[in-house]
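Pilot study result, target chain (112 residues):
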Amino acid sequence: MTYYRTTVTSVGPEAGDMLAGGVLILYAEPLPDALADVSVVHRPDHRAADLAIGVGDVVSVGGHELTVTAVGDIAAKYVDQPDQKLLPGAVHAAGGLPDPQVGQVIEFRTPH
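Predicted structure:
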């Protein structure tokens, strides 16, 4: 079941450098100017209020699926690599990071 769906509206000019380092910063519109260059900006269009990101869930970025392996205390701001320290707003996911493009859909869903 998809509990969060959003569409990429812009990709900052330095987001590719972050991605190469294993970090994908997702930030919903509107975002602070200071984060615009490194963020993948998105516009949510579906959110199930009663569900939150959990270990084992699936993150789909433009159809490329990753499996959530750890969730920070205030999660859902970005997906990073498993060998990095888990930050409070982080979601670790396994499966490699795709290169997000404007217009792609990002979904979080339960595995069943």
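One observation from the pilot: The longest helix spans residues 15-20. A full batch analysis is planned for the follow-on phase.
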